[in-house]
Amino acid sequence: MQNRLTIKDIARLSGVGKSTVSRVLNNESGVSERTRERVEAVMRQQGFSPSRSARAMRGQSDKVVAIIVTRLDSLSENLAVQTMLPCLYEQGYDPIMMESQFSVARVEEHLRILRLRNIDGVILFGFTGLNESVLAPWRETLVLMARDAPGFASVCYDDVGAIHMLMQHLYQQGHRHISYLGVPHSDVTTGLRRHQSYLAFCETHNLTPHAVLPGLAMKQGYEHVADVLHNDTTALVCATDTLAIGASKYLQQHRTTPVQLASVGNTPLLKFLHPEIITVDPGYAEAGRQAAMQLMARITQHTDPQQIVIPASLI
Length: 315
Hints:
Layout: H1 7-14, H2 18-25, H3 33-46, H4 52-57, E1 64-69, H5 75-90, E2 94-99, H6 104-116, E3 121-125, H7 132-135, E4 142-145, E5 153-157, H8 159-172, E6 178-181, H9 188-204, E7 210-212, H10 218-224, E8 235-238, H11 241-254, E9 260-264, H12 268-273, E10 278-281, H13 284-301, E11 307-310, E12 313-314
């Protein structure tokens, strides 16, 4: 039955017109929530999804994948996406971009629409709070970025190793008063793991930790860096490049004694504005390539899911 059903059949079973079914499939406005739910319920009951031939006749690609980023303006995620795209294009896939804004509900809605439109696979930039049950229907054709989950393909960064690498480098340069500007522990990777790595290094080397965890934004770096600066501070480690840019702006305006900045990211904007900042490259570009390649393998070869960790490198 699944292979023979058409939009006309779904419209008849739902008691609506073909144009209404089409609007539901394309997530367009002009359909009441009650009608949308009725049409979607019929499609689920009948196991219906738009055929590839129908998609092609509408001028859509026969091979489509989605990339769901947390923020379209994220420096780090953009670096990963830039290397995903050539890999996907090379294999004949057309990617579409979506944004979650760290909202679990928005991810759930995106995935619901993508399944209705018969999308081949998804690369999803994960964040703390994502429920694995939301991802379960995509287990075979989804790759998580920056987070891992049991049974899912994933590509992650070495958050602990990145901070340890910066701390080790600063320590070898003679710094003994190193402060830290980071992200709240509600973010497990960029927040909790990177901060814990800083604290562990301080404990091992008998350094006094001074840390504040305001968030991800440049403005937060600018406004909170003074909270961890002391008269004897000689170096400041930032969990992200955006925090480092904000901190650098503050230091230029308010600090007379030099402070060596160090950061995780190595993004082009930071390198252009502040080449003096010591950076660790977490491997954003390589992570993007690995995610795209793993997704293609999962779709076309049904390979087992891999949990890949990209090693960091000191720049």
